[in-house]
Amino acid sequence: MDRRATPPTSRDAFLVAPRVAPPLDAAFRPAVLSRRALAEAVRRSGRGVVGTVAVEQPGAAVCTTDVLLFPDDHPAAAASRAMCERAVKSLLWSCGGNRVWVDGPAVLVEELRRHFVDDATGRWDARMMGDAIYGRGFEVVAAPRTKFPVSKATTSELGRHFEGCRIGFDLGASDRKAAAVIDGEVVFSEELLWDPSRHDDPQWHYDQIMDSLRRAAAHLPRVDAIGGSAAGVYVDSQVRVASLFRSVPPGVFKTRVAGLFSEMKRAWGGIPFVVVNDGEVTALAGAMAGEVGGLLGLAMGSSLAAGYVTREGRLTSWLNELAFAPTDRAPAAPADEWSGDRGCGAQYLSQQAVGRLLAPAGIEADAASPLPERLVQLQQLMAAGDERATRVYETIGTYLGYALLDYRDVYDFDNVLVLGRVVTGAGGDIVLARARDVLASDDAVDPAAPGVRPAITFHTVSERDKRHGQAVAAASLPAPEQ
Hints:
- The chain folds into three domains: 11-147, no CATH class; 155-280, ATPase, nucleotide binding domain (Nucleotidyltransferase, domain 5, 2-Layer Sandwich); 290-471, ATPase, nucleotide binding domain (Nucleotidyltransferase, domain 5, 2-Layer Sandwich).
- Helices cover 36% and strands 19% of the residues.
- The chain contains 13 helices and 17 strands.
- The longest helix is centred in the last third of the chain and has 21 residues, at 387-407.
């Protein structure tokens, strides 16, 4: 029986079981397969309505995609509109924007507007995309596609500068790394454990980061530039949203944390000082190491960070916050701790996935212990040849494979670099092997393009670079002073 032949009369009708099943998550229903199932059902019905949605950043990038819908009188019309909302959320968190443009049925426009006002998860997305990130109101605009702003992506040439004496740093949720680089040669790098999310005093954060910078500077005759990689959303090196500072009161965040790196720049005499999202630096590191473009970088650490380098080798103004992009359509998918939304990337491609999968694997762990400690426990079991650990990594690898198929609908890439603690050690090899299995399966073939499988090349780095490569690449971010 065709597994996609279920009558599309409800949202659940578009849930598709993957051919490559994650060993520890029988309920997993990949978003990419649901979207394809809807599109195929609409095409077969002969009654499809083609809509278009776009998200727009203030004065910058515009990302546009078509969506297939059933007409209002069809039994699955509401389900198709719900799928459209998921497509909008994916665009918001991959591309970013405070304005959503919609060319579609009036009922779709009204449902989207209601979602971003009345639903808790929609309100969270609207607040983050509006005031928190772009400092503007959030809105849904109904207009014919001919009135949409032109689709574009603002790009930059950050990175690939290794002239002189530089410091690079990478700030994660459980450790901070720093590297000293002289004309492209690493002369020092270190990793220090920290726990920034529980500290509410910005001065503590300032002191900790400055400590790492000074320790790196001790190995340089001078410091010409500093580049940083950090979890969160950064615009012109200003902190907009970051879990690192989650305990800082909102008022103090605005007055001190937002400009924290500008304060550090002044402390270092005004030298070039650039900070971007850690996923961007992951992508940059991969593009530089592999000498390629069209690369998606994923950092699987305490959360999921992502970055994208265009085929021309440039970074974009896109958010690439795939931690919040939906990847699983299962009704009971795990909820994101920030937004409360279900099925979002961080629960599948980060230490959060490890913490969630230990119990299904039959591995006893203290639920109150920090995620890095639970990951270390898993790595130790993997090193000992424990099959339970293997199943955890196989499950995460399955998630990764289907997520990559999903991301291909937004990003133009055929190269992937995966870094982060989750893929450190032998377990990382299993993750990538399982992802390749998904990409080699029939699920990798889009029914709209039968016979075509995505050609994706995985790029690898040394175990040390998996942990420290971002700090080294970050050192290359600032252009030298003219």
